[in-house]
Amino acid sequence: MRTQVAVIGAGPAGLLLSQLLHLQGIDSVILERRDRDYVEHRVRAGVLEHGTVETLREAGVGNRLDSEGLRHEGTELRFARAAHRIDFAELTGRTITVYGQQEVVKDLIAARLDAGGDLRFEVTAVALHDLDTDRPRVTFDHQGEPGALEADFVIGADGFHGVSRRQVPGLRVYERAYPFSWLGILSEAPPSSQELIYARHANGFALHSMRSPTVTRMYLQVPLSEDIAAWPDERIWSELHTRLATDDGFALTEGPLLDKGITPMRSFVATPMQHGRLLLAGDAAHIVPPTGAKGMNLAIADVRLLSHALAGYYTERREDLLADYTDFALKRVWRATHFSWWMTTMLHTDPHDDAFSEQLALAQLDYVTTSRAMSTSLAENYTGLPYERGWSYR
Ligand code: PHB
Fold it and tell me: What is the pTM of this model?
């Protein structure tokens, strides 16, 4: 079997790349370890930057996103029992859209299959070969049958636990583990606020988010190795009420829980994001803590660069766009890594920190919510940085 681009992983990165390549007449095959039902239903992130929404529209998957996505013009920071709004639209002219990652995945899978795309689920034992030649190969098992795929390029979009990153010799890794996790819930209840609420409380961080007018998504900071059994529903609700409380009487609407899970928080950046004919995208190369809502947006930004670089290769035999992929991708990745770390430390209580750090975080929150310069900085990072290659902040 032969294709132009072999894509490992049917998450947002792999699917979107395959779709963007297809629109430019470039052929690809996607190999995914899980089954279709699993990838379409795993509950993940939900915030799309302005540029992410535009990219999805350009990829031809903007219809349901435009009708069902919730456009937000700002967000709220909450601390010391008071609410403070950051007005993205006014400060940057940009907005964000709340639309679940699994909805993006469903739309992309439907688009790939409609266009006759080759997308294989339940592919195991993936191994990459001859990456430093111009005929790389992938071998695998597909539903029990051995298979082999020859390509011009292999894209490692197989997530943090995938096999691709391990094929890059001399990989350098930068890492930070945060001393807490997030307990996330999905509740069948209308959101209690029109916008997202990021709250700092002495008991820890809480986040109010949503998926639709009838489904609320919320998170609580919990200890690092917390057991979900320690969090019966009543405890979750009681802690959400406590951490989100304001002096002007904020009311949180409860509902039956549809999903409940714990995720550790880490920052991780691997470089280079390429080796020979292998190029990495998304979580395979970098992870950010979810506090800045950057994870899926970074994956999509990687794919925009890759799609452009591969198109340059196929139309004009240009190698330069591929050669500097890592450098361009990492500029955005490190900005987002800093932003996510900054949001995380400002909003969480660190069990190892002292009263001094607590006061620094509160001083920072006060500054961000009262200085136009600081709130503009938060807003421009949150709604998304420019997409031009080698952009500057001016
Ligand atoms: C979510 O809705 O799942 C969500 C929103 C904002 C974040 C992280 C997760 O920062």
Answer: 0.97
